[in-house]
Amino acid sequence: MDHGSFQTKPTYCTLVNQNDSSKYVCYSHTKAGVFNIGLTNASEVWSTDFTEEALAKHGKKFALKSAEDYSSKIRLACGNGGASVSVQEDAAVLHLGASPDSLSVTLSRMSEPEGTAELRDLLFRMAESLAQQDIVGGPSSDSPGKSPFKRNTGFEPRRQLNGPTVTARKRLPGDSLINPGSRKKRPATGVAFDDNDDL
């Protein structure tokens, strides 16, 4: 694994545990040349570090070529409900798949002062990530150059894609709205009866 492939953007995803439906935040990032995977239920924190050599050894077993591959596998497993957590006394095992030979990572429970500091750092990293997305104009999954604001075209008139274009005729004053080809009729003024016709 080359040194460039060891770098990765921070990733964050939520995980609903298959075993007991408890919720976790799973995250990964690279700091000072160490790739870190962490897990928290907002009160306890579990974490593990991978040096470049350890990640390469682990990656060879599960066909992962880079730290980015590792992060993508975590996001995918969390997103499709394939991730689960087994909490032990001083560790937690993150399973990224249902089969026994699926990728699993053992994370150590962080003690109280370090765990609190890690939660604080995680909160600020997530806030900075959201702020950067707002500045850039949306999540990184959007294509560059596209507006993050998509128009809702559900109530717009449909346009004719092929064939001759029909231009609307301008309505002249006095034309009927119901029957545009005819002029409006003037209202009746009444009938004049002569008294002489009765004789």
From TrEMBL:
GO terms for molecular function: molecular adaptor activity. Residues 137-147 have a biased composition (Low complexity). One of its GO terms (biological process) is double-strand break repair via nonhomologous end joining. Residues 135-199 are annotated as: Disordered. Pfam families: PAXX. One of its GO terms (cellular component) is site of double-strand break. InterPro entries: PAXX, PAXX_N. This is Protein PAXX.
